[in-house]
Amino acid sequence: MLLIRCPWCEEDLPELEFRHAGEAHIARPTNLASIPDADFEKFFFIRSNPKGIVFERWRHVHGCARFFNAVRDTVSDRFVTTYKAGEARPVLPAVGDTGPAAHGNVEPKKLNVRKPAARGNGK
Amino acid sequence: MAEIARTSPLAGRFVGRPHVTVAPAPPATRLAVRAPATSRGALARALKVDLFDGRQIRTVGPRMSLPLGPDEWLVIDEEGADLAAICRDVDALHSAVDVSHRNVGILVSGIAAEAVLNAGCPRDLSLAAFPVGRAARTILGKVEIVLVRTQPQAFRVEVWRSFSDYAFSLLEEATRDPGF
User: Fold this and answer.
1) N or C terminus of chain A: which is more exposed, having fewer CB within 10 Å?
2) Residues of chain A with confidence (pLDDT) below 70
3) Domains (range + CATH), chain A
4) A16: which DSSP letter?
5) Does B70 reach chain A within 8 Å, measured CB to CB?
6) Segments forming the whole domain that contains residue B67
7) B12 to each of A20, B6, B15, B31, how far by Cα in Å?
């Protein structure tokens, strides 16, 4: 089972206690009634959904019930770090390959590099 | 006129095995409290039990306060004192809701208590990670519970009334594990 660190409880706790709550760092416009529909659509519906590192809101719903933000790798499912809601985006350490799942992150043409065939000794 | 009597949803249920006992807790009053740090002192004085900003419960006589979150507590009084009435006179900003009849207590004790709870609870319940006096809201199977370790081999499970049959049955099944 995945262990997720709750920044409020300051403990690594089982994933069953947590619930995902969408993308993080989306500020609600203060002038919601006056912005054009296109801007509202962008705020309300459009999410980035990148492959790799994402910033997400999570909630420790079956625990302290607090919201927090998490940096997660969508390829390896690894939680890079978690921090309290309202805090600034953390500066991330360089995240390299995170195990076998990272294989899927490599471009196909780089995966299929043909290595020169090993030659036998003088045969 | 028929007489109206409140019956516990777990009335008459009991599991007694050599290694573990699962039994419904006697009726108690319960209060769900939320309060900012500035109101905690006034509330604690009125309730006569500290609202501790940490993980450990505080017990004074029949009354205990269980910290559930940074500003949230569950106060249980086993003698049935009217906790909501006590808080009515507190002026400091707070929210106090009487949830006495929402919850049912289940007492799990014995050398296998930890293992029986771990059948449905994913938390690390070893004494090092979950010491005596520790309280936490967590999961038991598919339902949310509040778990307190009252003694090294005794736990109290607080579960919603309508989920209590599920929670008790799950614990009952867990005691049948032939590994004990």
Assistant:
1) C
2) 94-123
3) 3-107 (3.30.2270.10)
4) G
5) yes
6) 29-99
7) 40, 14, 10, 26
